[in-house]
Amino acid sequence: MKARSKSRLRPLLLALFGGVVPLLAGFLLGTPSARAASLTEVTAFGNNPGNLRMYEYVPSTAGAGAPVLVAVHYCTGTGPGFHAGSEFASLADRYGFIVVYPDANVGGQCFDVSSPQALKHNGGSDPTSIASMVGNVVQRHGADPDRVYVTGASSGAMMTNVLLGAYPDVFKAGAAFAGVPFGCFATTDGSGWNSACADGRISRTPQQWGDLVRAAYPGYSGPRPRMQLWHGTTDTTLHYNNFGEEIKQWTNVLGVSQTPVLTDSPQSGWTRTRYGSDSAQAPVEAISVAGVGHSLPTSGMAARAVSFLGLDRSAPPTSPPPTTPPPTSPPPGSGTCRVTSTVSAWNNGLTDNITVTNTGSSTLNGWTLTFTLRSGQTITSGWNATFSPTSGAVTARNVGHNATLAPGASTSIGFQATHSGDSGGPTEFKLNGTACQAS
To answer: How far apart are CA 295 and CA 333, in angstroms?
Structure first.
């Protein structure tokens, strides 16, 4: 919401920010006084039609090929303020990803999610500037262009929706805290505020919402980013009705049913629904928070978002981690295994959750699981293992926390992939070179 008239928007901006102030105060009280790295402003980062400022946080744990998280602030906020007042930097220290903090740098400190330029791929304005920031970080730090994600609160949540819609070629997933659907805030009068959307009075069919996203980048046929949505039930600043409209939009964009495959309550007062898959990296995940207004994310929610995005797992190493090489003739009882593969598919994508059980009598200290993907399938991300190559005959290698498999023990790994029509599960599973029983 880029402010065109400061006096007109001032009370609305105060409303947007009012619920965030107590939250940030709570975060700041719990923020460590020193970090392993510091926030740095980056100038001349590339094409910048929105005249934004750019800040980055590069922890010492971020090596070559680190993933990138763009964290977008609320109205009246700043990049440095969101860095200091949210948990994303401390999570970056822990998991080794780079955080980019855009700064709106205009009166009111809102992002443009309303203009025709903002709602079009490479159309100009703030989203184009943020895409330039990503390209700059990838180039300078050797970050992984296939592991770029975005999150934000309020105005930043709206921008999260916009970036996933207009730049599906850049962002792999997003987490939006108290936002509105892509295109909901659109205006044609130069104003940055859309009262009908803010008040929850705009309702469209899933197809209509999805068409708005698809029209942002005509001709794009690649994979669409996953989306995690958060909203408080008593939010009247950006009305709770927008939560349901976002669910309509992103389930349609990702080609999955609006009927959740999982409904649970991971924490008191939370209702979580997953669409298209019941996995931790479902195509769409939505969390409704009872009795909470316009004050998200509260403490602990950032970690949930980081987990959904997959940033709590190490990036694939440039060389395979040390493992025990498969013996040419396994000792009696070792190497035997059982594999369960559960595929959840949608129009052009799928997830596969794989459980590997050591049914032998010897402990495996380091393991590899090989399998063959169906023709036309390509892995785009994975968890609890490293996967290479991304198509054809694939090798999944253990990561640090699951390297040891005792007799009778199991570990769960999985991946998300695109497909060109055949969404069947992998075949020819072998653990350390020995064929597994598939179930």
So the answer is: 56
Backbone CA torsion sign across 287, 96, 159, 174: negative
Q: Are 172 and 149 in contact (CB under 8 A)?
A: yes
Whether the Cβ atoms of residue 351 and residue 361 lie closer than 8 Å to each other:
no
Report d(CA 138, CA 341) in Å as an integer.
34
Using an 8 Å Cβ cutoff, are 112 and 192 in contact?
Answer: yes
Is 154 catalytic? The answer is: yes
Torsion sign (Cα): 61, 64, 69, 73: positive
Cα–Cα distance for residue pair 314/15, rounded to 1 Å: 39
Q: Count CB atoms within 10 A of the CB of residue 313.
A: 20
The SS3 assignment for 117 reads coil
CA distance 244 to 271: 13
Adjacent-strand bridge partners of 434: 431
Segments of the chain scoring below 50 in pLDDT: 1-11, 13-15, 17-19, 21-35, 315-335
Q: What is the pLDDT of residues 351-385, one digit of tens each?
A: 888 989 999 888 998 999 999 999 999 998 877 78
Q: Do you find a cis peptide bond into 389, omega within 30 degrees of 0?
A: yes
Give the pLDDT confidence score for residue 314 in this predicted structure.
52
377-416 burial, b at 16+ Cβ within 10 Å, e below that, comes to bebbbbbbbbbeebeeebebbbbeebbebeeeebbbbbbb
Decide if 317 contacts 398 (C-beta within 8 A): no
Q: What DSSP line would sit under 58-87, residue for residue?
A: --TT--TT--EEEEEPPTT--HHHHHHHSS
CA atoms within 13 A on the CB side of 111: 34
Catalytic pick among 90, 129, 132, 154: 154
Q: Which of 264, 251, 279 is nearest to 383 (CA)?
A: 279
Angle in degrees, 0-180, between the axes of helices 241-253 and 206-215, rounded to the nearest 10: 60
| H-state helical runs in 109-232 | 125-141, 155-166, 195-198, 206-215
User: Do residues 267 and 304 make contact, with C-beta atoms less than 8 angstroms apart?
Assistant: no
Measured between alpha carbons, how far is 127 from 163 in angstroms, rounded to an integer? 6
What pTM was estimated for this model as a whole?
Answer: 0.71
Q: What angle do CA 273, 278, 281 make, to 5 degrees?
A: 95
